[in-house]
Write a structure and sequence with these properties.
49% of the residues lie in helices and 15% in strands. The protein is built from nine helices and seven strands. Helix 3 packs parallel to helix 4 and helix 4 runs parallel beside helix 6. The longest helix has 29 residues. The radius of gyration is 17 Å and the shape is globular. It binds NADPH dihydro-nicotinamide-adenine-dinucleotide phosphate. The site of NADPH dihydro-nicotinamide-adenine-dinucleotide phosphate has 30 residues, from helix 1, strand 2, helix 4 and helix 7. This is 3-oxoacyl-[acyl-carrier-protein] reductase FabG. Belongs to the short-chain dehydrogenases/reductases (SDR) family.
């Protein structure tokens, strides 16, 4: 069945792969982004997927953006909370700004987006919420107290909300990626990649954005109605929970 899907941060990286995969399933897809107009324009030129710009940390902007998408494509059936940032620093050097920026985008953004689609999903008795967490929310990571807190928060949020959505036909799940082959990874020196990162991953390679997208496509499908409150760990065996 064709559904309306909204992917936050859907113009590049993992989000772009998710948006493309959902479109390939026949869904009507909207991809949002924060400010990189050039990337968004290139993404639309390549895929034909419409993009929308707003900051997920801004509740009123989420309300307005989601209303616009409902007008353009129809009410949102599938929400993928993918937009996320890092603001790394060892805790003794972490500034309140670094802490708050991470919380505002990665955790408040998830609230702002989900809260704005929830009522309509409840009324229509169908919904799929998938939030992209991280292995670092499951196991912690040096210099990421802020990021790990948000990504662990996604998992608690999901388990609570899954209970509330269950009788309304809404499933709420998490995909927790490990190291994924995105632009961010390309900046890591080859020596660090080969001697530090890859040895930690039992399958011996980075994950691909498309592999995260396949997990999301499954969780977003009509067939996945019995899977809720779950975390799919997609990390090449690096952390088994
Ligand atoms: P990228 O940095 O490649 O892309 C981030 C996307 O999110 C962009 O479209 C960006 O928009 C958008 N975005 C960022 N902040 C906001 C905001 N405040 N409001 C709206 N949109 C925003 O991300 P990745 O593909 O690397 O990561 C995607 C998700 O996966 C994140 O949640 C990340 O934490 C998680 N993850 C990534 C891993 C990895 O190895 N890459 C590993 C584990 C988890 P713009 O282009 O305009 O800046």
């Amino acid at each position: 069945m064709t559904r309306v899907a909204l992917v936050t941060g859907g113009t590049r990286g993992i989000g772009a792969a998710i948006a493309k995969a959902l479109a390939a399933e026949g869904h009507k897809v909207a991809a949002t982004y924060a400010g990189n107009d050039e990337k968004a324009a290139a993404f639309t030129a390549e895929t034909g997927i419409k993009t929308y710009k707003w900051n997920v940390a801004d509740y009123a902007a989420c309300t307005a953006g989601i209303a616009q998408i409902a007008e353009d494509l129809g009410p949102v059936d599938i929400l993928v909370n993918n937009a996320g940032i890092t603001r790394d620093a060892p805790f003794h050097k972490m500034t309140p700004e670094q802490w708050h920026e991470c919380i505002d985008t990665n955790l408040n953004g998830v609230f702002n987006m989900t809260h704005n689609v929830w009522g309509s999903m409840r009324e229509r008795k169908f919904g799929r919420i998938v939030t992209i967490s991280s292995i670092n929310g499951q196991k912690g990571q040096f210099a990421q107290a802020n990021y790990a807190a948000t990504k662990a928060g996604d998992i608690g949020f999901t388990k609570a909300l899954a209970q509330e959505g269950a009788r309304a036909g809404i499933t709420v799940n998490v995909v927790a990626p490990g190291y994924i082959n995105t632009e961010m990874m390309a900046t890591i020196p080859e020596k660090v990649m080969n001697e530090v990162i890859l040895p930690q991953i039992p399958v011996g390679r980075l994950g691909e954005p498309e592999e995260m997208a396949r997990a999301v496509v499954f969780l977003a499908s009509d067939d996945a109605g019995f899977v809720t409150g779950s975390t799919i760990s997609a990390n090449g065996g690096q952390y088994m929970s």
